[in-house]
Amino acid sequence: MFLQVIMSWCRAVWLESNREEEGVVPSCWIEENTVRWPKGSALRLLRQQTQPTHSWMQFQLIKIKFSSGMLILPNTSVNLTVHAYPVLTLL
Long-range contacts: 41-46, Cβ < 8 Å, 24+? Predict the structure, then answer.
């Protein structure tokens, strides 16, 4: 059975310059306990859900508040939503 998740997004909270920041990012921008963010303008990269590179900035992930995406099954599609789940980290 072919299963694919596309257009997956997360509302995340991360630590940036000792301040909590919150925003919506593609789920592929979250790796383990890190949020990746491109240097410069991010708008086009956000829309295209571009895969992050090692040259992107990294911020400590505090939690994912919400994630959403579309699940594609053979001959059908289902909207998928998951609510708040914390990330266990040591600060």
Answer: none
Contact between residue 52 and residue 60 where contact means Cβ atoms under 8 Å apart: no
pLDDT tens-digit map of 59-91: 999 999 888 776 666 666 555 555 555 554 444
Per residue in 31-40, pLDDT (tens digit) is 889 999 999 8
Q: How is the chain split into domains, by residue range?
A: 4-85
Give the per-residue SS3 of the chain. Answer: CCCEEEEEEEEEEEEECCEEEEEEEEHHHEECCEEEECCCCCHHHHHHCCCCCCCCEEEEEEEEEEEEEEEEECCEEEEEEEEEEECCCCC
